[in-house]
Amino acid sequence: MPSHKIARIASDISRNISEIIANDSRDNLLKTITITGCNVANDLSVAKVYFTSLSDLSKEDLEREMAEAAPYIRSELSQRIDIRHTPALKFLYDESIEYGNRIEKIIENIHSKDE
Asked: CATH number for the domain including 42?
């Protein structure tokens, strides 16, 4: 279980990355990205940033685009948060929303068959 300090840093990273993508990036693909969560290692070396997108690109293409944007986002992030070492950013596509939608459709199908 992460400490309160790590959880606060993860929250700050998530919020600031969302602001960087929404306000500072010029890439239209990045504007379709929504940050859904962040997990930071206890030693603050790596931050796994989970995202989803409204784009029609595949999961692999989106992760590749985010990996290319990671150095820019990390440099902007280092100017916004006050920690000694800004963690390396690893962007991972968040499949939990799609998983939830699939389960919801299954439940709707079961209810429609009952009627």
From this structure: 3.30.300.20
- Supply 6's token pair: 């790590």
The rounded distance, in Å, linking the Cα atoms of 9 and 85 is 12
Taking 70 as the threshold, does the pLDDT of residue 14 lie above it? yes
The count of structural domains within the chain is 1
Query: CA 97 to CA 70: how far, in whole Å?
Result: 23
Give the pLDDT band (50/70/90) at residue 109. Answer: confident
CB 75 within 8 A of CB 16: no
Contacts of 87 (CB under 8 A, 6+ apart): 13, 40, 41, 44, 45, 46, 47
30 three-state secondary structure: helix
